[in-house]
Write a structure and sequence with these properties.
CATH architecture: Sandwich
Radius of gyration: 19 Å
Shape: globular
Largest sheet: 14 strands, mixed
Number of domains: 1
Oligomer: single chain
Number of strands: 16
Number of helices: 1
Order of helices and strands: EEEEEEEEEEEHEEEEE
CATH class: Mainly Beta
Length: 282
């Protein structure tokens, strides 16, 4: 049955990460091993309705004892991006977004086709107290660049999240994060038809300490974390931008809001290793 947000627990998609046969070079090239054989997700759907998105987006994931690796394929006939400054408001144009949730916090990553990124670390205010897991310099709202997020895009149309508000630490950067983007086409050139763009990420488990809280990191085989994978796409009609941008995700949230950990997908970590490629000629 649907939950408060229109996303029942049984509706959340489940993805199983196999173990990577070797550390990966992060260069955005998803035509290399092992991404050629890693299981791909189903296509992203409309964030609100769950209907099929008009442009295809899929992901793959792998892991080892050092990193979580993620790969994304984004179909786009006209690849566009303009923001170049780190932590620009990338949702104002076309972007890809990844969320990783802990019990009392979550991390948000955004990237555009230029490779510009935006990062924020969120802590539920009911979990932040002196002596708690989050009582550390990087999560001091009095000393850091922090904002407050209410929920449901801070509107009352759908009501606010029942857990209340979150501290949003805008200057937090994921330690050791690596990312790369490749465009299959010509960026910002409407004279031809592009195929799309790809994104490759490596998130070190060492950087997950704040997110893990009491969970082991790297995870144990069989462990499951909540993560969200989303894409926002702007369209113009008659020379004017349509509002809001279209939002697509691995599974629907039931409302136009990406910040609902209860609707995040389930990502499990298998002990099964993705088979190494056969020797040439065998």
């Amino acid at each position: 049955m649907p939950g408060r947000y229109g996303c029942g627990r049984d509706e959340a998609e489940r993805y199983v990460c196999l173990r990577s046969p070797a550390p990966l070079v992060v260069d955005g090239d998803l035509g290399k091993e092992p991404w050629l054989r890693a299981p791909r997700s189903g296509p992203f759907v409309d964030l609100v309705t769950g209907e099929a998105a008009p442009l295809e987006t899929r992901l793959s994931g792998l892991w080892d004892d050092e990193h979580l690796y993620l790969a994304f394929w984004l179909e786009e006939p006209e690849v566009r991006a303009s923001l170049t400054e780190r932590d620009s408001f990338l949702w104002m144009e076309n972007d890809l977004e990844v969320f990783v949730a802990g019990p009392d916090c979550y991390y948000e990553f955004q990237v555009n086709a230029l490779g510009t990124i935006y990062e924020v670390f969120y802590v539920w205010q009911d979990a932040w107290r002196r002596g708690s897991h989050f009582d550390r310099p990087e999560f001091d709202p009095a000393a850091r660049r922090a904002d407050v997020l209410g929920g449901f895009q801070d509107t009352m149309r759908h009501g606010r999240h029942p857990r209340g508000k979150r501290w949003a630490f805008l200057d937090w950067d994921f330690p050791g994060l690596r990312w790369a983007v490749r465009v299959d086409g010509t960026l910002n050139d409407g004279r031809d038809r592009d195929r799309g763009w790809t994104v490759e990420l490596a998130l070190p488990w060492k950087g997950m300490e704040a997110l893990a809280q009491d969970r082991p990191f790297p995870p144990r085989p069989g462990d499951t974390w909540r993560m969200a994978f989303m894409r926002f796409e702007s369209f113009d009609a008659g020379g004017e931008r349509l509002e809001p941008a279209l939002g697509w995700a691995l599974n629907r949230h039931g409302v136009y809001d990406s910040h609902i950990p209860e609707c995040f997908s389930f990502v499990s970590f298998s002990e099964k290793r993705l088979d190494a490629p056969s020797p040439e000629g065998s």
